[in-house]
Here is the input.
Amino acid sequence: MNYPFWEIPYLGSGWVIGIIAIFHVMISQFAVGGGLYLPMAERKAMRMPEGPLRTAWLNQLASHSKFFLILTGVFGTISGVGIWFAIGLTHPEATSTLIHNFVFGWAMEWVFFIVELTTIAVYYYTWDRIDSELHLKVGWVYAGASAFTLIIINGILTFMLTPGDTWLAVAGTGQEASKFWYAFFNPTYWPSLFLRSCVCCALAGIWALITASRIDGDKQPELKTSLVKWSVKWLVPSFVATPFILIWYLWLVPASQQALLTLGIDTIGSGTFSIITRIALLIIVTSATIVGVAYFLAYRNPIDFNLSHAMAILLLALIATGAGEYAREMLRKPYVIGRWMYSNGVRVPYVARINQEGYLAHTNWVWNDSASSYSRGEAIFRGECGSCHTLAGYRPLRTLLAGRDRANIGSFITMLHEYKPDSPYRRFMPPMVGTKQDVDDLTGYLNAQVNPPQKPVLTAQK
Amino acid sequence: MSSKTIYDWVDERLGLSELAAFARHKTVPVHSQSFWYYWGGISLFLFLVQCFTGVLLLVYYRPGAEAYESVRQITFVMHFGWLIRSAHAWSASLMIFSILVHMFSVYFMKAYRKPREFGWLSGMALLGIASVFGFSGYLLPMDELSYFATKVGLQIPAAIPWIGAAIANMLRGGPDVSEFTVQRFFALHVVVLPAVFLPLLGFHLWLVQRHGNASPPSVEALPPAQRKSMPFFPNFVRKDLAMWLIALNLLALLASVFPWSLGKAYDALAPAPLGIHPEWYFMSPFEMLKLLGMIPWLQGEPGEIAGILLFTLGIALWVLIPFYDRNKESGQRARAAHYFGLLAVFALLSTTIIGYWTIR
Here is the structure.
């Protein structure tokens, strides 16, 4: 509320982050998993007997490392900065909290980033230029540095879902950073780290299949067969361990968030199950498909495995990754930082004060003295609803409220304002905060969108 | 009794070994366009999904006056009814889409040329029947949208000169869409169309087995030693299975994340709600008729007649392409056929986009 609003019509600002984040996760997790894949593959090649297969493996790895360098070093870093840019604009309140709490964490991460970017460049440019043992060591340094970027960012990401009681006890006192390690090693830290590590390995195999698919199977059958089969094996640990880690993860998620999932599972037969459950099922189905498709297309037919097949597997991985990240976001509802900040940027302990003094009184970038109820309603809509809803597009209020008249819209907003303990909306929506006048202004604005005033009938005039 | 003994017993009577030997010897060409070979198989898979989910829906669906109520029960009361209905509706759309992709890939690979003319003709007939499947199935829930969309859709056959009105009346079972129309469409959807579709599908698949997959002209021009191929069994079958898995995954995604909705029950006396439009695969002809009607000297009946004539001519040219662009010596005709194909893709895409853009 201390910042201007960034309104994206139709798409919604949340999806701007979502699209960039899904793209980034596909690449950054490859950067971590692939960081391990490269030295492991190089070590395997070095242990092979001298001969054409060994040389071919090393040449192929050099080619793969070029692809790796460009994809992670260019697109990974650009999209990473893109996330910063987007969250800063979309959720300045939450971003501010994260920076104030985790500035030390990000400082560490930037150090590892620099090591990562430097070593991968050295790794690529020193193939056949330095001693092979030393080259392999460079690969291991890269693997370590990239693993640490995950180890650090995981603490910050999981903090947003489960900040933990210790940090919450000092939240808002200005002493938050003193509980840095408690916030960092929060309840879901470890299962999430294992989960992401598994995904990283799977993505390393999937991206390696992209470059391996380009090998001419007729000219180099032995190379293609061995490399494709070895890369497929990188998918196995993840798909064996993931279900168990997922159960561990969900077990540690707060009961209110678990309720979102169980509500969906209870009502699955009648088709009313929550979106988070649908998405969770989608992750399971798509992961199983990836294993099946990789088995049929790659493992059993390595020679014929081509770029289209590899792209099909990558596309499935994109669906699974996108669904996973979406599910993680949905699981946080109605908060953006668990039990501390609602998804529209309102801090939980501030609700009573805003209800008394008015929403716009705490909104520095809006002209508070606007005499028009419609303008005030529009500002409240942007601030309180705009993080998750658009007027027409994603979660469109014009459609969601269609069929309601002014009184009906008003009672719905009043229900969100009262936020009674038994309200079903508490599970995924923040309260509507503000005074009675704010409720009325928002009602008027939304009513004008849902039931626009009829245009006056023009009569024919000379 | 060992499994070999059982196999031998069955083999002696059904000739399984011959079938296996046939599958082993059959090959599929491998080249940069091989990707397009999978679309026929994907269409077949989606048709199988249609049969499976369709039979399950048939158990609870009641045509006639209770049509809407029975679909409401399937969607909201029966356990997993929503999933079966969504899978049926989504796989119908996906099937038409994959048949269209299959058709255009066959067209641009010139796979309709000698000796595959019957493959092309039977494929076109299958596409025609599939679209009638879609049209008849769309009405069955009898909600507001399907009712009015069918009313609008029937304007196309009704626009045929002289006999159009009679055809439309026969399809409707009266002057307007009603419960009698549902009865007729239901009979068409579950008895008449499958009875025609299934043997034709068998014929089409038999032709594919008989003539094998066609290579594009650029591959055919290569000397035999440079052409590559893979065994149909197990290599191609494994890949086909992988494609089926992907199609199933996509279907699961659409059916669970975007379940097919059910609108209000239809009310013949109510005004048509805003935004009524046909299914996406009928949007192009619908929009073309609308666009023709906007030409000043073609407004009203002349526009409709011109539209129908244009469609008939276009479809006739399209279906009869094997007799026009016959072989690799076709030269100028082959190029003309190629441009005609591009024009068809452009017309379909552009009119569909304009159609959705201008929904009111």
